[in-house]
Amino acid sequence: EAGVVQSPRYKIIEKKQPVAFWCNPISGHNTLYWYLQNLGQGPELLIRYENEEAVDDSQLPKDRFSAERLKGVDSTLKIQPAELGDSAVYLCASSLVGGGPGEQFFGPGTRLTVL
Amino acid sequence: AQSVSQHNHHVILSEAASLELGCNYSYGGTVNLFWYVQYPGQHLQLLLKYFSGDPLVKGIKGFEAEFIKSKFSFNLRKPSVQWSDTAEYFCAVNAPTSGTYKYIFGTGTRLKVLA
C-alpha cells in the first residue's frame, strides 16, 4: 500500500513569492490534515478536511494561507506571499476516520526555506 | 487550553540502558493517547496508542507506555534501547473539543543512543 505522498520535498523561495505544496493521501482515507512543524517543535494543525469539506481551519492564517481539496482526494496548500517566518516543514497526514481517535499516517513533509 | 508536555527535550543513552520518556497532558475528559516516532530521514510513524482498557499498552520494537489517569501521564518505556532507536519521539493527545476531536502534539524528545 502506498503511503502519503507529498511534493516537493524541498523548496527554497524568496520572501513575498508564492509557494504551493501538494499531498496525495492513502487511498480510501477520507480525512486529510495539513500540519506545520517548526524546528524543535511538534506538528501543529493548520487544517483538517473530511472529504472536500474543511472542518477545522481555525489555526490556518487565512490572510496568506489557503488550501483546497476539490475532489476529496488530493490537496494543495498555498502560501502567498511567503514570509521569512514561514520557513518550516509542512506535513500532510491522512486517516480513515476523522473527528475521532484514529491513527494518522504522515507523509515525508515539504521543507520550505524562505530567504 | 489543552496541551501536551514532554519534559525531556534531549536524551542520550548507551545501548542496553533503560528508557523512560515523560508525557503529560492537560485535559480532564476522555482522551486517546499516542506515541509517534520519527527516525532520521523518515516520516512520522505510530509507535503505540491507547484508547481504552488495559492502561499498559505495547507497541512496536519493544516499546510500551503506561496511561496513569490520575497523573495525566502517558510515559513511554523500553527496558533496553538499541542504537537503532535513535530518533525523535512525539507524544500526542486526541481529545474532543467543541464537538470534534483535536490532535495535539508535544514538542518532541530527541533520543540519541550511543553504540
List the helices and strands and how they pair.
The complex is a heterodimer of chains A (115) and B (115).
Chain A: E1 5-7, E2 10-13, E3 19-24, E4 31-37, E5 44-50, E6 53-56, E7 65-68, E8 75-79, E9 88-95, E10 105-106, E11 110-114
Parallel strand pairs in A: 2-11
Antiparallel strand pairs in A: 1-3, 3-8, 4-5, 4-9, 5-6, 7-8, 9-10, 9-11
Chain B: E1 3-5, E2 10-14, E3 19-21, E4 24-26, E5 32-38, E6 45-50, E7 56-58, E8 64-68, E9 73-78, E10 87-97, E11 100-105, E12 109-114
Parallel strand pairs in B: 2-12
Antiparallel strand pairs in B: 1-4, 3-9, 5-6, 5-10, 7-8, 8-9, 10-11, 10-12
Description:
The complex is a heterodimer of chains A (115) and B (115). The mean pLDDT of chain A is 92. By secondary structure, chain A is an all-beta fold. Chain A has strands at 5-7, 10-13, 19-24, 31-37, 44-50, 53-56, 65-68, 75-79, 88-95, 105-106, 110-114. Chain A starts with a strand and ends with a strand. Chain B is built from no helices and 12 strands. In chain B, the strands form 3 sheets. In chain B, strands 2, 5, 6, 10, 11 and 12 form a 6-stranded mixed sheet that branches. In chain B, strands 3-9-8-7 form a 4-stranded antiparallel sheet, with no helix packed on it. A two-stranded antiparallel sheet of chain B has the order 1-4. The termini of chain B are far apart. With 115 residues, chain B is mainly β. In chain B, a hairpin with a 4-residue loop joins strand 8 and strand 9. Chain B is globular. The A-B interface holds A 3-4, 33, 40-45, 55-56, 91, 93, 98-101, 103-104, 106-109 and B 4, 9, 32, 34, 36, 42-46, 49, 51, 90, 92, 94, 100-103, 105-108.
